[in-house]
Amino acid sequence: MGLEMESMAASIGVSVPVARFLLCYVATIPVSFLRRVVPGRLAKHLYAAASGAILSYLSFGFSSNLHFLVPMSLGYASMVFFRKHCGIITFVLGFGYLIGCHMYYMSGDAWKEGGIDATGALMVLTLKVISCSINYNDGILKEEGLREAQKKNRLIKLPSLIEYFGYCLSCGSHFAGPVYEMKDYLDWTESKGIWSPSEKGQSPSPFGAAMRALLQAAFCMGLYLYLVPQYPWTRFTEPIYQEWGFWKRLGYQYMSGFTARWKYYFIWSISEASIILSGLGFSGWTESSPPKPKWDRAKNVDILGVEFAKSSVQLPLVWNIQVSTWLRHYVYERLVKPGKKAGFFQLLATQTVSAVWHGLYPGYIIFFVQSALMIAGSRVIYRWQQSVPQGMDVAKNIMVFLNFAYTVLVLNYSCVGFIVLSLHETLASYGSVYYIGTVLPIVLILLGKVIKPTRPVKKIERLIILLAIVLEEDLKSLILMEPTKSKINKMFSPARKGSVDGRGAPNLADLEIRPCGMLVQKRNGETNPTSVSIPIIRVRVKYGFSYHEISISSRASFGELKKMLAGPTKLHHEDQKLIYKNKERDSKEFLDVARVKDGSKIVLEEDIVRREKRCIELLRNANSQKSLKALAEINLEVDKLAGQVTALEAVDSKGGKVVEKDVENLTELLMMRLIKLDGIVGEGDLKLQRRVLRGEQIRLLS
User: Fold this and answer.
1) Half-sphere exposure for 524 (CA within 13 Å, toward CB)
2) CB of 443 within 8 A of CB of 380?
3) Distance (Å, rounded) from C-alpha 72 to C-alpha 169?
4) 512 - beta bridge partners?
5) What is the average per-residue pLDDT within 281-291?
6) Close Cβ partners of 425 (under 8 Å, ≥ 6 residues apart)
7) Sign of the alpha-carbon dihedral angle for 452, 453, 456, 461
8) Fewest beta carbons less than 10 Å away: which of 39, 264, 419, 563?
9) pTM
10) How far is CA 365 from the centre of its chain?
């Protein structure tokens, strides 16, 4: 058996320990598939724990399971005895033990020399143990203050020991990931959630997706075995490397990083196939017709996404996906204070944790610090790219290409530290290209502080701005329509009646000013019926080429005369202008005060300006009731939409995923309400104010 193992290892160019590990690693595929036929929940948990422990023993020896038992025991004990602080306790103890193992085994050197140990599997186990404890800790917190990921993964009840061991040692992800949550593991084992029987079928077929992953793994391993002899990592310290020119050294760094990545692509493709065949990799159904199963939970890398990333910011989303998700949920987001935004500190701290998780080699530390600088520099380019005005597609495409080229350059430059690990070799390789991958991100970050483009408005922010605009327009319309509403109410309300008999205050409408300036009760035929009769006079009124003789009381007002003239002249009394002794007379002025006598001549003219004003007023009054009703309807509609916008904003502010279609639908509905508001006829300078506001709206929404 030993000779066979040696010959097999020699045929693929690896050491015997690595060959043994690869055999056990590939064995996770059939072992994970057989788990599908294990009956009962308890049996499934036992199978998961036992299969993981046995394969670990065959691959790394008995001591590996003892190492796994330490963080598992510490994590479970903290959940049992210190629930309020079990998350931070497990985090510190778990990482502390992992760091101790890194220092004791110095696995990086062993791997470079063809050896292998259990620290790789211990790294995955540590993340599982920590996430389980933190989620159990979140179970006692109020749901209102939690992010969507916390709500989804929180554990209310303590998992049993057998559930816990099955989760930690499940062989499909035990060796190299992907990391998954305890809540998902329990739902999968108990056929709950997306794994419960549905109308779409008892369970989706995993064979197509698993075969794709296996073919991908075979291709990755073949390409790696072809490239690695041509681009050995040892060449960075050889004299021939130093004799090359700048561009050739830079090109070799690119090819070294490119070659090394295919090894990880192979490892993760095997894990993906294993998780898919077990059923745990299932993540739901597509919305297509007919629906198709999705296997995103098993996916740990997007090869094309890594090699053709348009921005460094995209790399954590496509490389070691599940670990990147873990770092975001359990480090990055938890370092951000409520109401604050994440910055470079959170990014650097997250990358530092990732570096320590990989090992204490200087190459790891330098690589992940470099990654933080790389992402920060790429964000600067992206902000400049987003600030390019619409219509300048060529300039925007140039910025996209520059960000892509920047990502390719800095990523493969930084990868050298991850490959060679030692401080001397890392600095020697970086120095051979004049530290271009370090200087360039720093320069971009500093330029970003100086050249600050206008921050692009996200779709959700545009939606909130649009809602504010609609609410402001709605409020302005209601305020400016209020005078019209009051006027209408006064027009149709009964007139107040005053009294002068000591029981109430006299109505101003019943009073008048005499020529001497005295304020007395208005003179009319009903005020003092017992007084002497008031003389009636005849006045001649000229209108155009015709004359009209009108008999009227000498104490009447010019306004009353206008009303009497409305019949024969067909002119509305408010459109008339009476001129007596070459002077226009006010409607409230009295005839006797103006010394109008019997036989006096008065000229009547049509007041065009007053007529236009009256017509406009009539139109306004006619439309006011309709406008007020329309505003009330829009108010109700906007209130409903405001609730939906608030819900989306809450999801976005907590880092949740907002469905783009929902944002677009709400935006369209609010725009329709804004158009309706523009169509409402208001009073005063409403149109002018809207016109001024429209320029600000266009600026905010563009």
Assistant:
1) 10
2) no
3) 10
4) 520
5) 82
6) 236, 237, 363
7) positive
8) 39
9) 0.64
10) 32
- What is the residue-wise DSSP string for 637-684? HHHHHHHHHHHHHHHHHTTPPPPHHHHHHHHHHHHHHHHHHHTS--ST
Q: Is 174 a catalytic residue?
A: no
pLDDT confidence of 594, banded at 50, 70, 90?
confident
Span 331-337, average pLDDT: 88
* Cβ atoms of 90 and 134 closer than 8 Å: yes
101-124 per-residue burial string, b: 16 or more CB within 10 A, e: under 16: bbeebbbbeebeeeebbbbbbbbb
Nearest one of 560, 565, 562 to 548, comparing CA atoms: 565
Residue with the bigger pLDDT between 429 and 485: it is: 429
Q: Are the CB atoms for 124 and 132 separated by under 8 Å?
A: no
Q: Which of 358, 424, 548, 573 is catalytic?
A: 358
Q: Closest Cα partner for 266 from 324, 219, 228?
A: 219
Euclidean distance between CA atoms 295 and 318, whole angstroms:
15
Residues 150-197 pLDDT 10s: 999 999 999 999 999 999 998 778 888 788 899 999 999 988 888 887
The pLDDT, as a whole number, for residue 676 is: 66
Sheet holding 583-584, edge to edge: 546-553, 536-543, 601-606, 576-580, 583-584
Break the chain down into helix, strand, coil percent, rounded to 5.
70, 5, 25
User: What SS3 class is residue 46?
Assistant: helix
Which tokens sit at 535? 């003389």
H or E, element range at 211: helix 207-227
At residue 567, the pLDDT reads: 85
pLDDT recorded at residue 479: 52
For residue 250, what are the CA distances in angstroms to 296, 434, 512? 35, 10, 101
Higher pLDDT, 13 or 684: 13
Residues 6+ apart with CB under 8 A from 252: 231, 235, 241, 244
**Contact indicator for 356, 95 with CB cutoff of 8 Å:** yes
Q: Is there a contact between 347 and 372 (Cβ–Cβ < 8 Å)?
A: yes
Question: Tens of pLDDT along 465-506?
Answer: 656 665 555 555 555 555 544 544 544 444 444 443 444 444
Q: Report how far Cα 380 is from the mean position of its chain's Cα atoms.
A: 20
Both structure tokens of 377 = 């520099």
Residue 143 CA: distances (Å) to CA of 1, 117, 146, 187, 339: 57, 41, 5, 20, 17
Residue 519 bridge partners (DSSP): 513
pLDDT at 402: 93
Q: What b/e sequence results for 349-383 when a residue is b if at least 16 CB atoms lie within 10 Å of its CB, and e otherwise? A: ebbebbbbbbbebbbbbbbbbbbbbbbbbbbbbbb
DSSP 8-state symbol, 128: H
Closest by CA position to 357, among listed 97, 100, 70, 98: 98
> Measured between alpha carbons, how far is 286 from 319 in angstroms, rounded to an integer?
23
**Sign of the CA dihedral running 524, 525, 530, 532:** positive
- DSSP-derived pairing of the beta strands 536-543 and 546-553: antiparallel
Phi then psi for 139, rounded to 5 degrees?
Answer: -65, -20
Which helix or strand (DSSP H or E) is residue 284 part of? strand 284-285
Over residues 9-28, the mean pLDDT reads 78
